[in-house]
Write a structure and sequence with these properties.
single chain; 220 residues; alpha/beta; Purple Acid Phosphatase, chain A, domain 2; 7-stranded mixed β-sheet; 4 helices; globular
């Protein structure tokens, strides 16, 4: 994990897209998209049915790494509102174990509005924690500090003749967009106008490595 400052608070970022807030002992994750594979399977596009277990195993590792006692999922936690119903027994047991052990908050996203069975935890539209807004999609007109997900930002670079893509955080003075944490999620180029249009002003892509944080300016 590598530290950085946002909204006068210290956070730690991991390479797989988790954000740890030490003063709150809280872990923040975005866009798990649990049961995305089974959703596509119902449409006839068969994908390996292991995405939820892989994602939740990664969540458990992040909890163990940080020692977090609370967790916020910033929307699109399930790929659709019935995703929790389709969880395999092993994945459901892993999730319910996590929600029972942690102060767990689901923030609703555009993929999972109105989901009823959420395997524990509580559901909110958005949360305000120590003056920082936690929501699914950034709102450009929001002047308060805001942490969100939705766009699955990735930094794409051409280095020494090959294309490189990495999950990244996009940070502006009052906005922080998190990458997707799910095992079966794509990504939107961090330079994309939809991302830069939401954060406004001066922004940077943050790519956490094992021992340092790389910063890449993003031009509008």
């Amino acid at each position: 994990m590598v530290p950085f400052s946002f909204a006068q608070e210290q956070f730690f970022a991991t390479g797989d897209g988790a954000l740890y807030w030490p003063r709150r002992n809280a872990l923040l994750l975005a866009d798990l998209h649990l049961e995305k594979g089974s959703w596509f399977a119902r449409l006839g596009q068969f994908l390996p049915p292991y995405d939820s277990h892989a994602t939740l195993s990664a969540v458990a590792r992040a909890v163990g790494l940080t020692g977090a006692t609370s967790l916020y999922c910033l929307g699109d936690s399930f790929h659709d509102r019935f995703g929790c119903d389709r969880l395999p027994a092993t994945a459901r047991a892993l999730l319910t174990g996590l929600t029972a052990a942690l102060d767990w908050t689901w923030i609703v996203g555009n993929h999972d509005p109105g989901f009823a069975d959420h395997c524990g935890g509580r559901i909110v539209e958005e949360a305000v924690v120590d003056g920082i807004i936690l929501r699914h999609e950034a709102e450009r007109c929001e002047t308060r500090p805001e942490i969100s997900g939705h766009f699955h930002p990735k930094l794409r670079l051409h280095i020494k003749g090959r294309n490189v893509s990495r999950r990244c955080f996009v940070m502006a003075p009052s906005k922080l967009i998190m990458p997707a944490f799910g095992a079966l999620t794509g990504g939107l180029d961090a330079h994309h106008p939809q991302i830069l249009g939401q954060v406004g002003g001066k922004a940077a892509a943050l790519v956490p490595l094992t021992d340092r944080l790389l910063r890449f300016p993003l031009a509008a």
